[in-house]
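Q: I have 214 residues here and want to know how they pack in 3D. Can you give me a structure?
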Amino acid sequence: MARPPRRAEPAVAATAPSVPAAAVPKLAPPLRRIIGIDPGSRITGYGIVEVSGARSRWIAHGRIACAAGPLPQRLLRILQEVSAVIREHRPTEAAIEEVFVKDNVATALILGQARGAAICALAHAGLAVAEYAPASIKSAIVGSGRAEKAQIQHMVKALLGLDEAPPTDAADALAIALCHAHQRSIAGAAGGGTRVATSWRQMRVDSNGKLVKR
């Protein structure tokens, strides 16, 4: 008597062995190198920081001094010197302070031209340029839009772990770069990314010069 045909066993898909979450290496956040510019017709400050996640590292800062002379020559010097800084340190992002008109409109117009020379150097290097109002920068770094220069210097020194406070123009430029880093982290969080920085408005410098939460 013929045996009935054997029923075929259902195929079982092969599964890869599970890997513990702890065994999966975490990718380091991408490095961002930001140049901040504090424009001026006599002295232009610059500051460069490198940002990875919530950490900011000082790279360089300095001042571009323009000797007294015709304005076109001073503007040319700003363009050339900012271009040289970009070539040396190769930033990937740029930020600059907006012109603030308070009393002297003529001074603001000259400052705007110095700012334009710096922006041309940044744009020529292929950098997108973010712009921030002075009050926004002060608020991001110190927690008050009316902060004094000395307060900005002190906070920049603490945030970047510097041995001494930079000159005012350079400190302002570093503050602009840090402000940009902070704003980008907030934008990343709003877009669904991970927020990588705590608001500096929630921080203060203690009696030992260390940055601590309020």
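Q: Anything worth noting?
A: Residues 86 and 170 are 15 Å apart (CA to CA). The chain has a mean pLDDT of 82.
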